[in-house]
Amino acid sequence: MLSPNMINRLNEQINLEMFSSHLYLQMSSWCAYRALDGCASFLNQHADEEMMHMRRLITYLQETGALAILGSMEAPAHDFQSLTEMFEKIYAHEQFITSKINDLVHLANTEPDYPTLQFLQWYVAEQHQEEFLFKSILDKIHLIGTEGQGLFFIDREIGGLAAAATSAATSEPARA
């Protein structure tokens, strides 16, 4: 049985994941509007992934007999000065989400709530991957640049990440 504090904090995380999905979907739209189709596709996929993170938390709460509560949220930003600025905001957002996951892990360890601690380990690993991914995208943006054809190459590179993720998802063997 989850403590009321843990239920509240997991519900907060549900809503942060939902906001993340909306943020990336909005950013995808910004990219599509600027003919950055590779980035748009990548961020659209990432929005779906964040929604999956939210649903995973909802399922966990339901399995423990707790009520998942979806709250209202502020609209995400919809305009950016540059692709670099947008990915810097994404990286900062992922670092924020990591800090919130770490807070949940600390709470689960302190209470102690070992089932939730075990459940959260997937999120710990996922956030490590997310930060690494967005840091590497920023590194490539800084390396290649966004002037002239650089923007084309960055968009193509990021679009390749979306294509690779789609290919990997469709080639996984069926699970029992």
From TrEMBL:
GO terms for biological process: intracellular iron ion homeostasis; iron ion transport. One of its GO terms (molecular function) is ferroxidase activity. It catalyses: 4 Fe(2+) + O2 + 6 H2O = 4 iron(III) oxide-hydroxide + 12 H(+). CDD domains: Nonheme_Ferritin. It is found in: Cytoplasm. It comes from the Bacteria. Its EC number is 1.16.3.2. Gene3D superfamilies: 1.20.1260.10. Belongs to the ferritin family. Prokaryotic subfamily. Iron-storage protein. This is Ferritin. It comes from Thermoleptolyngbya sichuanensis A183. The gene is ftnA.
